[in-house]
Amino acid sequence: MQSKTFFFKKELLKQGFRTTGWIGIAYFLALTFILPLQIVMDLSREQDESYKYYFDGIENLFDINGPFQVISIFVVPVLAGIFAFRYMQVKGSADFIHSLPLSRNRLFQHYFFMGYAMIILPILVIGFILLVMEGTMDVDIIYNQQHIWEWLIFTIVMISLLYSFTALIGGITGISAVQGMLSYIFLFFPVGIVFLFIYNIELLLNGFSAGYLWEENLTSLSPLIHTAYSLELNGILNPTIWIYAVLAVICYIAALILYRIRPVESATQTLLFRHLKPIFKVGVTLCFMLLFGTYFGLVQEQLIGWVIFGYIFGAFIGYLLAEMLIQKTWRVFGEWKGFFIYIGIALVVIASLVFDWYGFETRVPDAEDVQGVQILQNHSYYSGDLDGIGELPEIEDKELIKTITQFHQKIIDNGDFQSGREWNVYSTELYIDYHLTNGNHIKRQYFIPSVKKYEQFLEPVYENEAYKKMNQFWLFHDDKDNFHLGLHSSYSDSVNIPASLEDPLIEALRQDYLNETFEEMLQQDFNLTIEFLSTEDSNYYRHIGVSSSYTTTLELLRNQGYKAAFSLAEQDVAMIAIRHEDSSYEEHLANVPGASESELSDVFTTVDQQQIAQLAALEEEHDYEGEWTIAAFGPRSEEYMTSFKIREDQLPDFVLEKYE
Amino acid sequence: MIQVQNVNKKFEKDIVLKDISLKVDKGSIYGLLGSNGAGKTTLLKTISGIVKQNSGTVEIERKPVFENIPLKERIIFLPDTLFFFSQYTANQMAKFYQNMYPNWNQNRFVQMQNLLDLDPNKKIHRFSKGMQRQVAFWLALCAMPDYLILDEPFDGLDPVIRKKIKSWVIQDVAEREMTVIVSSHNLSEVEDICDAVGIIHRGNLLLEKELDDLKSDIHKVQLAFKQETNDDIFAGLHVLHQEKRGSVYVCIIRGEYEDIEKQINQFNPVVFDILPLTLEEIFIYEMEGAGYAIENILL
């Protein structure tokens, strides 16, 4: 006789295994190929000198077939969740299973843990295999025990969260396909909806800024995006993983509670609880509205007419889609009351933003009330690792704050931002964060078509020390251990700077950068950059351009024998071509070697080494505003190297003679 | 004893069961009649503890059924469309039942297998419909339930199998006082086994009767007299239906046999027959009295 007190019923587990077992087996096989087998294959190739990848070691086990691992984390738990609870989405089996003498609690536990075992066991077994390999084979060059533990924790937490979340979603719908679809939607939803909201408010409210870093902070709202993101950029065991672990348990408990009140007869219904339907409808309509608004905002350059069209069209599509899903038919063209109410409310909200009923767009703080200001240029999430930002300095100079508020008022008065964004060399995007004396912040973000236009305001800002420090904050960090420096120019790929030179070089860069004038900062013409390469992450680096005004830095580099790396005069130049900006030859000078004699009638070319030396030396004095362009070719005369501009009075006589 | 009191059930906005009350005595067979969509299946699922009512009580032996595991171990519900796990054989299903139902009787399972003459290691879904029905009853009866809830169990079966299954059920009712509820849309299908019958229509229970009461209570009377008579002859009798064909009266009269005989004999009829009614005729007249045309509800 079976023991009556044993919680799990053998036959029910068997039956559960028959429906979800294939997932477990397939997952195990997939993982075998992804990890142990791959490692064994790599090991047998170890002799191959070219196979250097593993000699650097790996950061974590996701470096091995990472994309496949991520895909399996995305797909397997959702599949398992759908199939484990398939029985309650089919009428016949739902009735049968619930007629059995088992409490709902027990039924849920049986099916939940059967499905869960199917995704956890393969991971544990693979972990065990990796551990055995680590003990018996020579895999130290690839991974160590620490890697296995990290991998196990990350994979188990992510998989548990996605699985229990899918189980939870199963509780609110009666169709397996909808269960899968809703699971994925909700896993992306938090990020998607916040992104859409912020983007659309940016679209409608001039000057709105969500603050820098908002995109980064957003990713952890979606476990899926977080997985991809953390494997790309951060370490895998960041604190978010523990939050996910707690969420997984919460989802499990919520799924259990929901299951106990879930009516059996709701199998084959799209949404189980009646009051979910309007929420679902509004949700889908809103998402599509924002999505289409975003689309037209991006494609049509923020023209408000098109954006509004996008909103209405998107809401229309979303509303129809939601209706179709709920009613399970595509003949849903009768119900328009809800749609018109929605559109009415939405238009009022949009109008309130467009016409700025809250005074958001015109609000400029009184300089008296401002304690400090941060102004950042073109900040973005693509600029790399921002963990090191810490507390950025603020502009606290009272006079300058006043200038900034005047500048802000000027931007609003001019209304430049209302036309489309047309970028030129003087365009920028400025982020202003006022830190008020009462502790509040006012954050705004503006596209500035031309910095030059606002010179009277921006010159003192650009030349302010705090401004300079906050915009290149990394240059002033003292975490040299994490970086090594490299030199990059038109003439040479990365040249490593020896450690002994790093300190003086950084010091020189800081000095030159802080001394740079507004004019010099605008002229971003340099063919020499100093790179700060991360020692930890090969994808990550920062750089600073060394223009001709960086005299201390250039002097230092010259004295240390790096001139060959960045000076044209040191290169093997075979030919030089020169033209005036009014020249009849309108193509880029790089095309000169292929041009015919007649086309080049007013282009000066020379192959004379003496003349070349004299012209190449001009590079150091080049002038961005000059009307003459000099192009250098070498080491063979048809290979274009570089070009720079120069004023007429700098040109040697033998060039000017040609034009007399 | 099964007791259902003032049960209401809604699916979304549709009312499926409206204030239903009924009682099934221990060891009796109750027939639940109604057309398709009347709410029979929902009522049966509520009684089996699968579906929870919105209000009212469903009790077996004075205990609520829903989520009552000791009770559910003694209840078997057979749905109209049978359910077996896909790819399962009869033996595998039997093992499953054995694991679920503590009263499972393995001896009986083996005995009945010999009677049935089918291969227990063949996958159930390969069997014919009639065979599958027999397997379902075979499994259900071996679980030795005290309460057997059957939803349209005889629908589409040939008479031989129908008779066989009925005899199994009656045997268990007689031997172990098993209580049975059986639903059908066809009265004649179940009248031979039921002790009591209830008719459900659009979620309402229209009437509920003990069949013995019904049959002894209602009579079809044919009368003819030599001379013209007036309606005095029926004074004091409860006439449900009356018509005159030539000089012959055909009446449906409710009341004791002796009372009717005594009353009519006073008028010296030349023709006087008291005939038993078929159950169906009884229902037609009963329902007429309640203001319904039975053809719209049954058949």
TrEMBL record, chain A:
PANTHER family: ABC TRANSPORTER PERMEASE YTRC-RELATED. Keywords: Membrane, Transmembrane, Transmembrane helix. Coiled coil: none annotated. The chain crosses the membrane at residues 21-41, 68-87, 108-131, 151-175, 182-201, 241-259, 279-298, 304-326, 338-360. The lineage of its organism: Bacteria, Bacillati, Bacillota, Bacilli, Bacillales. The keyword Transmembrane helix applies. The keyword Transcription does not apply. It comes from the Bacteria. This is ABC transporter permease. InterPro entries: ABC-5_transporter (IPR053046).
TrEMBL record, chain B:
The keyword Iron-sulfur does not apply. InterPro entries: AAA+_ATPase (IPR003593), ABC_transporter-like_ATP-bd (IPR003439), ABC_Transporter_VariousFunc (IPR051782), P-loop_NTPase (IPR027417). PROSITE patterns: ABC_TRANSPORTER_2 (PS50893). Residues 2-227 form the ABC transporter domain. Keywords: ATP-binding, Nucleotide-binding, Transport. It comes from the Bacteria. GO terms for molecular function: ATP binding; ATP hydrolysis activity. The keyword GTP-binding does not apply. Signal peptide: none annotated. This is ABC transporter ATP-binding protein. It comes from Gracilibacillus oryzae.
